Write the structure tokens for this entry.
Amino acid sequence: MSSLASDSPYAVELNQVSKIYPGTPPVEALSEVSISVPRGELLGIVGASGSGKSTLLHLVGTLTRPTAGSVFIDGLDTSGLSDGALSGIRSRNVGFVFQDFFLLPGVTATENVGNGLLYSGTPERERKRRAEAMLERVGLSHRLAHLPNEMSGGEQQRVAIARALVHDPSFILADEPTGNLDSQNTASLMELMVSLNHDGATVILITHDPEVAEMCARQITLKDGRIEFDSSTVPGNAHD
């Protein structure tokens, strides 16, 4: 369930979004990009360095505001929201996963995942219960009490995914989640992403790796700040 009450069928919508960074000359990182992400979709966004992927990530995650156009999260137009309101959306409705796992080093897997509930006012015992259940869901029931330095890179990323999911966000926003993993761990992690998606999670995965994007049900390619390809517009692949 989304933390924002909404009848919108979309977790995220970008409507004619552009982002221009000031300078001499100004840099147009994104130009009139429109994307609708239905609930329950597994979307891979791919592009080379400079294509606009990072800017898109920051806009979808409400980490920055568009120069033009609108970003909707769960049907809510975020354009006029205060910084505090945007922070609330990030903490409740977005589950961030990064290339660098950002786990607290002296803290167990259970505590790292439970930290994802700190700002929700969830009691400690309930945080622990939900963290253990989520770690079991990502295949780490045997690592509950382990510290990050006692786990492999693939296991650490699974802890990070469990932390992103534990507060039941509207969608997971994953930034190069396989960037620090070898090919075997990459394949294993993508199997987990597909499995989570089959269970109902909405996943937006941003990557430079076309092979990772190909594992997603829908692929979008960015080039020079514009959408070059969207598999949902290919006949036979379009959304209902």
About this structure: The CA atoms of residues 72 and 90 lie 13 Å apart. Residues 1-5 have pLDDT under 50 and may be disordered.
